Amino acid sequence: MEKNYEIAFQIILHAGNSKSNSMLAIEKARGGEMGDAHGFAKEADNELNEAHHIQTDIIQKEASGEGYDVNLIMVHAQDHLTMAMMMRDVAKEMIRMYTMIGQLQAKIGSDPA
């Protein structure tokens, strides 16, 4: 049972790191720091991949007959993973939008406010 908690907390850790990096990517994009924004988005992807790898391992073990006791902590971990995936997608779209806004502002000579 302790191993199950450890696995769940690893998912929470990586999903949380991914979500934080996604938020930083949006912040950097808002400030026009697109290189940094893309860097944080890449880190968000890396952390998300780690969490997803752990989840996939659990699913494969379950499919091969190794039982896994689902507990509230694992459900919580899956919620974190889902939210991190959504936040990563939002961050990527926000980077695209801020890039377009910057390009449009450059064309019309507007100063970002």
List keywords for this structure.
0% strand; mainly alpha; Methane Monooxygenase Hydroxylase, Chain G, domain 1; 3 helices; 113 residues
Write a brief structural summary:
The protein is an all-alpha fold.
The averaged pLDDT comes out at: 93
Architecture per CATH nomenclature, i.e. the level-2 architecture? Up-down Bundle
Radius of gyration: 18 Å
- Element pattern in H and E: HHH
Description:
Helix content is 85%, strand content 0%. Helix 1 packs antiparallel against helix 2, helix 1 runs parallel beside helix 3 (72-108) and helix 2 packs antiparallel against helix 3. The model has no long low-confidence stretch (mean pLDDT 93). The N and C termini lie far apart (53 Å). With 113 residues, it is an all-alpha fold. It has a single domain, classed as Phosphotransferase system, lactose/cellobiose-type IIA subunit (Methane Monooxygenase Hydroxylase, Chain G, domain 1, Up-down Bundle). It contains three helices and no strands.
Secondary structure: elements and pairs:
Elements: H1 2-30, H2 34-63, H3 72-108
Helix pairs in contact: 1-2, 1-3, 2-3
